[in-house]
Write the structure tokens for this entry.
Amino acid sequence: MIDRPFVVVGGPGHGGPPNRKGNLGVVYGNTTLCPLDWVKQAYNDDGYPELSSERAARRWAIKGDIVEKERTLAICLPWWALLQSPKGEDHREDGVDFRLSRHADEETSLKARAEQTEATGADLIIEVHVNSGGPKQHGADLFYKQGCRSSRAYAELFAKLLPDEMRQGRKNNCHEARPRPHWTHRARNCLYRHKKRTKGIVVEVGFATYAADRDFINSQRGVNVISQYLARATIAAARMEGTQ
């Protein structure tokens, strides 16, 4: 058991101006999801030359009306507010000291973000992203560190608490973040920039490439449902840690 607040850092995915590597996948805007040259070059750099062809890259370069960095921040700000006391101090009643890695559209390198997070002495890191995939893929996904039993336990807890709107469409909502296949690679990058002992999970709240998910994530109701779910799951994680 721990006799201090359970420190959690929430990370709204991306932030800052788009660029080829740091914000790959961030612009699901009115023109393209990602410019084709960003997608092709990034996959090639990451060791997936088979995905760097124009035909493969076009799967991700789709039109839409969602910007990932804006949606993740829109979800995370009320999540943070729900875990604060009325006085604006850290919410202690449920044993949670909750912080966000950014409160605005700010760009922070992966290294700097990892250093900032580890300086808090975080017990758990929760990265929030919006997924993309094939035309039929939908629903939320939870990713955990490969071979880390504690990270897996947290991911399974968060998966168990998923609202129906986020659970549907996936046979399994909980996955190990491995170097391959490629669809777990981004989650692995988010998790493994932190020190080996740091526990972390990635919450992909839905697919921007699926119309129903996209509409839900873009709606105020969707923001309310997702942020309230994250707050409930964060408190449940603190209670789970307190019983160990």
Remarks:
- The longest helix spans residues 220-243.
- The mean pLDDT is 75.
- The chain has one domain: 6-16+68-243.
